Amino acid sequence: MPATVQDDPPGIWCMFSDGSTAQFGLGGVPCPGLVTDLLAGMADLIHPHGSVDAAGSASQYVQAFRQMARRLSAAGFTGRAADLRRPHLTEYWMGTSGPMESCTRRALAAFARTGGGVSPRGARPVGGGGLTPPPPPRALPPPSAAAGGDPPP
């Protein structure tokens, strides 16, 4: 088994394709039910079921879950994944970074796909595209006269 979820306190143990292991604990984080549901979704994303195949990648997911639980708790949320509604998810995802949004979105989608309780009112945004805009592309440098290009007008 590539991942085992612990309920009390919330945590996860993972084994990766190279034989290495990692364990992450989230004891003391608010919304322990939500965190456990996110970890259950993450377990389905660990190799060979999914593409998470290194402790560093798994750590990013855990950091995202910790941040999501803290922010939702600060907004008054106390439930599990089944209690999430569109406003909860939208507010969190609009106020976080793209990688944090992606980690929580993928874990919730995996949790729902494996039979976890996700409300129909919360499931629609889980399966949609990202809300956090990607960073703007870097501007190309102006052509240099030394390279044979004409200077800009």
Question: Summarize this, please?
Answer:
This protein has 153 residues and is mainly α.
Q: Round the mean pLDDT to the nearest integer and report it.
A: 84
Give helix and strand order, one letter per element, not per position: EEEHHHHH
Fraction of residues in helices?
40-55%
Shape: globular
The total strand number stands at 3
Derived structural class: mainly alpha
Through-space gap between termini = 63 Å
Largest sheet descriptor: 3 strands, antiparallel
Estimate what percentage of residues fall within beta strands: 5-15%
| Low-confidence regions | none
Strand order of the largest sheet: 1-2-3
Count of discrete alpha- or pi-helical segments spanning 4 or more residues: 5
> Using only CA atoms, what is the Rg?
19 Å
How would you explain this protein's 3D organization?
The protein is mainly α and 153 residues long. Helix content is 42%, strand content 9%. Strand 1 and strand 2 (11-15) form a beta hairpin. It has helices spanning 32-43, 55-74, 86-94, 98-113, 120-127; strands spanning 3-6, 11-15, 21-25. The radius of gyration is 19 Å and the shape is globular. It is built from five helices and three strands, in the order βββααααα.
